[in-house]
Design goal:
It is globular, with a radius of gyration of 32 Å. The protein is 4% helix and 43% strand. The protein has 858 residues and is mainly beta. It contains five helices and 42 strands. The chain has a 22-stranded antiparallel barrel. Strands 14-17-18-27 form a four-stranded mixed β-sheet. Strands 22-23-24 form a three-stranded mixed β-sheet, with no helix packed on it. The two termini are 22 Å apart. The longest helix has 10 residues.
């Protein structure tokens, strides 16, 4: 794989370019077979842990390649597999044995009489049959005598907390049709099943992720100076929850409802993985991930490129079409029931009596799909002006289609009228429960694609001599990044798959109890016979400008490279600025003031949030980079350092009337970043500096050793201060950015892991205002990680070698922490409380981990 991370050529639609080339066969047979083991036995204990959780992971990597028809047809096949056999330890909060029998140590009010139960004991004949079935079948009793109902139950789940196995096969066939024409086909797959747990032994849920890619290619040499490459690709991504997996059958929510005798919670009579969500304050929630097809997505693309060498010009031109199809199936919902103690004085007593404080049900949408198509054309020319000067000029056009839904369940919000606009073919499907005070009108909701995405790419390179060169580049790139910085083909989404808009509305009911009357909500049928008393959740909407205006990133770079004493040196300046970048903001807030908040002060009083997509954000990026590299002899190294500033002006969206101009760190870029890598082939063994005359036996023992060291040093990632619990702006914005009133880096007693910034440097904003602190104005823990690997290679025969590799990540066991919460309103908001997870960062992992790999190559 090769990568161009800045000023990518016109062939690439984004500022970076990745070229992945898979292995292929040849006229001789080659292959490898390796095995790697991860075992917590060899790992250090985590910073916040007193013991190590057992962990074991096996990895196999098999490859084989060779001829099918000599000089004509070749194959390559590979398989990478993972197995993670050990389980996971869980803790849960469950009711005490006394509670399970209806006995409480505090006063419990009988809702029928309004008087306390005698001896705080609920009679057995008053305990709901539904609650009793839930308790007996799904809610275990305590097995840890800690005197509380917090973490008083422990159990071992026999599967990993992530995937427990994975398989990644690949097959490639290459065929030479003639000396001017060759074909290839490639198939890849990812198959990763999961068996997971949602907090209690019975709450098992499963997932199957099945991803496949097919690619076929045709390379045609048209003439000695012209080559055409045609590629067709098709990929699928299938995610299904709730199938039987590894002998485990997750609970079917419809059968659970039948088993416990709970009625009315499944109005659509759906089936599949799930559980009625039962939330009892202070205890582990009884809930589960609902099953169904979460994705059945497909991508088809066709790309054609022509390479043409014409004198001093290397011309490349081409184009492509890419079609995306996303599908979201029916995902059942089995109701939500909340017990908070508001009826008897004890949440669990409310549950035993079958009296929820509130409940909710919905008949969900499902089997929904969205499609969009993208088109692109480009041409570029690399021109050798003179022996020393090379120029590059390219231009690219992209048409990013906007999504459409075949079921027409699409809507938009019109900020000028306050109306919800619905596709005319879908307006009959608006839920009858949708509030009548929200005006719904038919109209065109399809986003209109921008058609003038024509952008240039320019570059020059001047070689002063054979050891030094100056390079410069400039390019404009169309931005399709969402507010998190991730590529989003389906922007804007209207609406996102899995959401409901005005088409599927939850029914919410709140209990009404008084002595001598029948409660409104009571097991076994806790839903009224009529929806007249249903409380429809306060509605929020999403909206977007109908005419999509993709942002632009202008990138420019200048670098000087020189070789000194066989060491390659490079100094570079990289810069970019962006305009018309997209972000979302809730526009349904009154202006901040000292007037207490009232919903009537909202611009659209019939709605809660109106989240609008805007295209007017800006960004600024500047970086200096220095690199050194030596790739000759038995000692090679590379080192780099960068000083970077990356700012955006649309992160502070608390006040929709004053978003832009508040420049802040982007939160993803480290200001200082240095890395160094060294590989040393030890000078021992036959033909080496030491023991050069070793015989075959001794050489197998002392020769073939090498070691590699990789070190990262960097500034911390930025994070935001915040306060919580109050609404000083009187806009129904609880919490947010505080006021900056001092120096957060002036920490009494000095910075440490338990006191990282001075919370007294911030204060909740004054009444009628938002905070003036900037997003990402605090810096987290600096990065420091060193990794070591030792490799031993032994020649078994001339063609067969055995390799053994030991890798030690974070060799000095330097703890690397996730950023504090930054909350100044609660204790510990300036304290580190967790380490990086294994997959949180490429530069760092958790505690020191040691792995061993052995394998044969031929």
């Amino acid at each position: 794989m090769s990568a161009t991370l800045f000023n990518a050529p016109a062939e690439s639609p984004v500022p970076f370019e990745l070229n992945q080339v898979t292995k292929r066969g040849s006229n001789s047979f080659h292959g490898k077979a390796t095995y790697r083991i991860y075992d917590s036995l060899f790992d250090a204990t985590g910073y916040f842990n007193t013991t190590k959780s057992p962990y074991l992971q096996h990895e196999w990597d098999l490859e084989a390649a060779g001829p099918i028809w000599k000089n004509r047809t070749f194959f390559y096949g590979g398989w990478f597999g993972q197995r993670i056999p050990l389980g996971t330890l869980f803790e849960a909060s469950v009711p005490s044995n006394d509670w399970r029998s209806g006995l409480f140590s505090t006063t419990i009010i009988d809702p029928e009489t309004g008087l306390p139960f005698a001896n705080n004991q609920i009679p057995a004949n008053r305990i709901s049959s539904v609650a009793l079935a839930v308790q007996n079948d799904y809610l275990p009793g305590p097995n840890i005598a800690n005197g509380t109902t917090v973490n008083n139950y422990e159990y071992h789940f026999p599967f990993n907390s992530d995937l427990y196995r994975g398989d990644w096969p690949i097959v490639r066939i290459d065929h030479t049709v003639s000396k001017n024409n060759s074909l290839f086909g490639r198939w890849m797959m990812r198959r990763t099943p999961y068996v997971l747990n949602n907090g209690l032994p019975a709450l098992i849920w499963t997932r199957m992720r099945h991803h496949q890619q097919w690619v076929v290619g045709d390379t045609q040499i048209i003439s000695p100076t012209m080559v055409n490459n045609l590629r067709l690709g098709f990929s699928t991504d299938h995610i299904v929850d709730g199938q039987d997996e590894a002998g485990q059958t997750p609970p079917d929510g419809s059968k659970v409802l039948t088993n416990i005798g709970l009625e009315g919670a499944n109005p659509g009579d759906l089936t599949g993985q799930g559980f009625p969500e039962i939330d009892i304050s202070g205890l582990t929630s009884l809930s589960n991930v609902s099953g169904g097809t979460k994705a059945n997505n497909r991508i088809f693309n066709i790309v054609d490129n022509v390479d043409w060498q014409r004198g001093a010009h290397s011309i490349k031109l081409g184009g492509g079409v890419e079609h995306y199809h996303n599908f979201y199936g029916i995902v059942p919902n089995y109701g939500t029931f909340t017990f908070d103690g508001s009826i008897t004085g004890s949440p669990y007593a409310d549950f035993l009596l079958g009296l929820p404080q509130s409940d909710q049900r919905v008949n969900p949408l499902g089997n929904r799909s969205q499609d969009l198509t993208e088109y692109n054309l480009y041409i570029d020319d690399t021109y050798k002006v003179t022996r020393k000067l090379t120029a590059y000029l390219g231009v690219r056009w992209d048409l990013y289609g906007t999504p459409y839904a075949s079921d027409h369940l699409m809507y938009n919000f019109d900020p000028n009228t306050g109306n919800v606009v619905v596709d005319p073919k879908g307006i009959s499907k608006v839920s009858p429960l949708y509030p009548s005070n929200i005006t719904v009108v038919p109209g065109d909701v399809s986003a209109i694609a921008q058609k003038d995405n024509i952008v240039p790419r320019i570059g020059i390179a001047y070689a002063f001599d054979d050891k030094s060169v100056l390079r410069a580049g400039y390019g404009i790139f169309t931005s399709r990044l969402d507010s998190s910085g991730a590529l989003n083909n389906f922007l804007p989404i209207s609406p996102q798959l899995g959401s409901t808009g005005p088409f599927s509305i939850s029914e919410v009911y709140f209990n009404v109890t008084s002595p001598g009357t029948v409660p409104l909500l009571q097991f076994p049928d806790p839903f009224p016979s009529s929806t007249a008393s249903a409380m429809v959740p306060s509605q929020s909407v999403n909206g977007y400008p109908q005419h999509v205006d993709h942002g632009r990133l202008q990138q420019y770079s200048l670098s000087y490279e020189r070789e000194v004493a066989r060491i390659g040196l490079r100094a570079s300046y990289l810069g970019s600025h962006g305009g018309d970048l997209n972000y979302t903001v809730n526009t349904n807030k009154p202006a901040p003031s000292t007037t207490p908040f009232d919903s009537s002060r909202r611009p659209y009083s019939q709605l809660v949030d109106t989240t609008m997509l805007r295209f007017d954000g800006r960004s600024r990026f500047n970086a200096l980079q220095f690199e050194a590299e030596r790739r000759v002899s038995d000692l090679t190294f590379s080192a780099s350092y960068s000083l970077t500033s990356s700012l955006v002006d649309f992160l502070d969206t608390e006040n929709p009337y004053d978003v832009l101009g508040h420049w802040a760190n982007d939160g993803q870029t480290r200001r200082n970043y240095a890395s160094a890598n060294m590989v040393w082939i030890l000078p021992v063994g036959k033909g080496k500096r030491f023991m050069s005359s070793s015989g075959p036996g001794m050489d197998r023992l002392v020769g073939g050793w090498s070691t590699s060291v990789l070190t990262y040093l960097a500034s911390g990632l930025d994070f935001s201060p915040q306060f919580s619990g109050s609404d000083p702006s009187n806009t129904s914005t609880f919490g947010g950015l505080p006021d900056l009133v001092g120096d957060p880096n002036n920490v009494p007693g000095g910075k440490n892991y338990h006191n990282w910034f001075n919370t007294a440097a911030f204060a909740a904003p004054a009444s009628g205002t938002f905070g003036n602190a900037r997003p990402n104005s605090l810096e987290g823990q600096p990065l420091y990680q060193t990794h070591l690997s030792v490799t031993k290679s032994v020649a078994i025969t001339e063609r067969v070698h055995f390799n053994f590799i030991t890798q030690i990540s974070n060799i000095f066991n330097h703890p690397q922490f996730l950023n504090p919460s930054g909350d100044i309103s609660v204790p510990g908001g300036n304290e580190f409380t967790s380490q990086y997870g294994t997959f949180d960062s490429l530069e760092s992992g958790q505690q020191r981990q040691i792995t061993f790999l052995g394998g044969f190559t031929f």
